């Protein structure tokens, strides 16, 4: 799959160069490449600062016991969504951390916790295929509720939005709808064999 994407990107680059040469717009292409590269570096620096700040806050929250409190608050929900997992298992803790990071709109900070959760879930799965808990976690992670869409707000502020978080109602509505539909479908399909 990644090889196919590499061919697609290479093809797009070659086609754009050919079009620029044929239409006599090589200077505009060069200017676009340089401004795009400069903009990408500026965006990465802005996003890195935001991610460092929020990842640090998440670490402080974990060390301060907030994740344990969130785990207790989420325990009734976790018990229903992940009935195969023990309440105090490392998998449940990692899932709660992942949900918390996604809740705060920190998709990049949630990724390591999501990987840790999937590894913990895989330890209790003797097969090479995903079990119900693993599938449910993927659904919850992909269709997570975002209370504060930090990444999107930072992007909007970077590009001059006067109210970068005025998208909150739309984000909340779509997040809740996606999560409800995802969990419902995952629960309906639990126990069905792939064969």
TrEMBL record:
N-terminal signal peptide: none
Say if the entry is tagged with keyword Nucleus. no
Q: Does the keyword Ligase apply?
A: no
Tell me which residues make up the Nucleoside transporter/FeoB GTPase Gate domain: 46-156
Give TM regions: 7-26, 32-54, 134-155, 167-189
Q: Which UniProt key words apply to this protein?
A: Membrane, Transmembrane, Transmembrane helix
Q: Which InterPro entries match?
A: Gate_dom
Name recorded for this polypeptide: Spore maturation protein A
Source species: Caproiciproducens galactitolivorans
Taxonomy-wise, where does this protein's organism fall, top ranks first?
Bacteria, Bacillati, Bacillota, Clostridia, Eubacteriales
């Amino acid at each position: 799959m990644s090889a196919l994407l590499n061919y697609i990107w290479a093809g797009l680059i070659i086609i754009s160069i050919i079009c620029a040469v044929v239409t006599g717009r090589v200077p505009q292409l060069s200017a676009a490449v340089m401004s795009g590269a400069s903009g990408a570096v500026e965006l990465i620096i802005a996003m890195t600062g935001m991610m460092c700040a929020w990842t640090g806050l998440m670490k402080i929250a974990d060390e301060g016991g907030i994740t344990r409190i969130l785990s207790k608050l989420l325990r009734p929900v976790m018990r229903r969504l992940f009935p195969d997992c023990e309440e105090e298992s490392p998998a449940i803790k990692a899932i709660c951390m992942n949900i918390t990071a996604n809740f705060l709109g920190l998709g990049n900070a949630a990724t390591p916790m999501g990987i840790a959760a999937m590894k913990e879930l895989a330890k209790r799965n003797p097969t090479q295929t995903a079990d119900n808990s693993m599938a449910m976690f993927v659904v919850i992670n992909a269709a997570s509720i975002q209370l504060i869409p930090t990444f999107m707000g930072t992007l909007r502020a970077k590009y001059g939005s006067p109210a970068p978080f005025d998208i909150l109602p739309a984000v909340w509505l779509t997040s809740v709808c996606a999560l409800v539909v995802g969990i419902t479908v995952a629960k309906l399909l639990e126990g069905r064999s792939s064969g």
